[in-house]
Amino acid sequence: MKAIQMSAFGGPEVLNYVDVEEPVPSENEVRVKLHYAGVNPAETYIRQGGYAFFEPELPYIPGFDGAGVVDEVGPGVTRLKPGDRVFVSSSLANLTTGTYAEKVVCDADVVYQLPESISFEQGAALGVPGTAAYRALFHRARVKPGETVFIHGASGGVGLLAVQLAKYIGAKVIGTAGTEEGIELVKQAGADAVLNHSEPGYLDAIPSTTDNQGIDVILEMLANVNLVKDFTYLNKYGRIVIVGNRGSLDFNPRLAMGKEADILGMAVWNAPIDEYNESLIGIEAALKNGGLNPIVGKIYPLKEAQKAHVEIIEGKAKGKMVLKINEK
Question: Would you say residue 224 has pLDDT above 60?
Fold first, then answer.
């Protein structure tokens, strides 16, 4: 089968489009014939080597997220059967052969049903972004219905799903994006208001959009740029969850002291397995019940994974990036 495989750590050029042996599922494992695979920033960090959360043995097929059809099940698998439409979210799986490939084998526990109403490219947008959004909102921030959530950088894969999940449980949601296209996507996801974070003074609109009630929870996608600003309209006892960061900053802890605010780190890799499984069950339910409709951005052919790795770091997020592997 065709796959993207790396035999060394380094830049995008280490991602090679090659023929590899088709994997075979063992006990409690599932093989999925993939139509699309998700591309995540974390996969570029893993590719470079030295990533704190995960460093694979080489050669290695990247990829944790994908969607397709169950091709074969191993002994002991009863929840899934060949022909089932599914999405794969294998970042915490005991075994995965990587989703940048025509087929993937992984633990049955990280493979979930994909409703007919959700396309395969949408299904590939769910794994890492969906579990990150769910964990940030419900395990770290413990968002409650009626609270106001500010998603600082809402036009990417995590942000768009977070908008939908927060709205689904009854929160008011304000998102930001840096382009007109991104703003439209955040509106499409259901945000109550969208601000352009490329404009000076964009935070000044928060009082009017919250009826002067302020912000209860902030999901922060670029903490090194925005963390200090996040405190401007954060309510007393508010919570800031750091989902993304690309550098250091000069920070005065009195900002947190004055509001008794919580600054919470978040990484999918740290999730206890019961909370990770809960997030996947919750995502599956939201898909079935209309609470989630993933928004896909750029689509690259599998053989162009190198280009995708450059774009996902250097480009501005506009929906979830995926790799097209097989026709439906």
Answer: yes
